[in-house]
Amino acid sequence: MKLISRYTMMLLAFVLMLTVAVPTVLASGTTDNSGGKKLVLGTSADFAPYEFHKVIDGKDEIVGFDIEIAKEIAADLGAELVIEDMGFDGLLPALQSGRVDLVISGMTPTEERKKSIDFSDTYYKSKQVIMIRTEDAGKYLTMADLQNEKIGVQKGSIQETIGQGIPGAQLTALDKISDIVLQLQTNRVNAAIVEDTVAAGYLDDAIGLAPIVVDGEQVEAAIGIRKGNTELLNAVNSTLDRLKSENRIEEMVTEASQLMVGKDTKNIFEVFWAYKSFYAKGIGYTLLLSALGVLFGVIIGLIICMFRMHDMAILRWIGTAYVELIRGTPMLVQLMIIYYGLSLTFGINFSALQAGVITLSINSGAYLAEIFRAGVQGVDRGQLEAARSLGMGRGAAMRYIILPQAFKAVLPAIGNEFVTIIKESSIISIIGMVDIMYQASVVKNITYQGMNPFLIAAAIYFVMTFILSKLLGRLERKLNASDRR
Ligand code: ARG
């Protein structure tokens, strides 16, 4: 009799257990608003020594001489500096839309960019160079040698434009410089166009420089400011003037270069230990995503299952259409539609977390609906007839006779689905959800290790799904106990 409510309780308990992660995670996502003036800096922190991630005292920090300059500007303005790290090609839109107040990211003040934003005076100059694998030394001597070659560049950078000008070159344009370096190390590209100051940080026994000057001119870096914000522009320029007259910028470059780490030789346990706080944060978000995905997925699944088995044809039709549509399209495509499509077309702006939960739950809802239906239909018809002949109403027969048996029969399938949700939630990392997968990429970007960060992520996912399977197996055995006599 009490079977159903007991199952429901257990399920709820599981979901609640997972949702414990909510407050912790949400709390870490909010910035306190103490009322003071804020200066929001947009940057792509993959560009050592300009701006890059570095773990200092176990905490991930964004450092570099661009950041030092930003601190000086903020101090001169009496404002608190807030840093927003994003892909380089997201910086211009972020500045234009007002998400950030200024962009310091080793950005070159090109004519093209000047059409949409304003630039401060130049604060640094570097040169364009080609990075190659050391074993290829001597292979590329002039620009002509790069024709028809596989070349890595940063998306949205002037290096991408240069690459597009090389005849026959096959360009791989990626978000972060570290991704490009990994592509080079793993033979996916054979050369990368970068700036010498940045390349210096990567030169080790595996990566060398080709003696090719891409263009004779120096690459300048300036600070981007929203068009018409002359007040900030003047403030920025006067801070730059002061720093230049004190020779501070040169010092900052030297200091930042000293912070740059060489290749990371940590083993997997050391990587895990050094970045445990990263993974912990990722676990919180993965749990949150999966818990909410399971919760709403079950609700959607029940509703759709009821639709599919309803007496009214139209409801049955809706149920079937839902299942076919959701099951027949990739989750990644659904995510893109919900996150970008709805936002750009209808102005519905879901946060990454909201978009992730919606995608996961509508998705698992479709699968769960089918599982529930299979369960109900799998119960012998005679059971319903017997219940009815005992005088039970349809509802009561369902509740006390059919559903408990159905639930028990499909428990393994439901368990499968929950495990799938935990694993599939990793897809949400693509829109910037700070889950385990996302954090693994961050660690990869910091350490330049391609294997360990992901092995750690795999281990964490495995432990999570394994614990869940064990719990479900236990539940299954408990329920089966009633069958033995
Ligand atoms: N100077 C180049 C440009 O303006 C590359 C800058 C890349 N900066 C970065 N933080 N990744 O396009």
TrEMBL record:
GO terms for biological process: amino acid transport. Residues 283-472 form the ABC transmembrane type-1 domain. It comes from the Bacteria. InterPro entries: AA_ABC_transptr_permease_3TM, ArtM/GltK/GlnP/TcyL/YhdX-like, MetI-like, MetI-like_sf, SBP_3_CS, Solute-binding_3/MltF_N. The keyword Cell membrane applies. Residues 1-27 form the signal peptide. Keywords: Amino-acid transport, Cell membrane, Membrane, Signal, Transmembrane, Transmembrane helix, Transport. One of its GO terms (cellular component) is ATP-binding cassette (ABC) transporter complex. The chain crosses the membrane at residues 285-307, 337-362, 454-475. CDD domains: TM_PBP2. Its main location: membrane. GO terms for molecular function: transmembrane transporter activity. It is a multi-pass membrane protein. PANTHER family: GLUTAMINE TRANSPORT SYSTEM PERMEASE PROTEIN GLNP (PTHR30614:SF20), MEMBRANE COMPONENT OF AMINO ACID ABC TRANSPORTER (PTHR30614). Belongs to the binding-protein-dependent transport system permease family. HisMQ subfamily. This is Polar amino acid transport system substrate-binding protein.
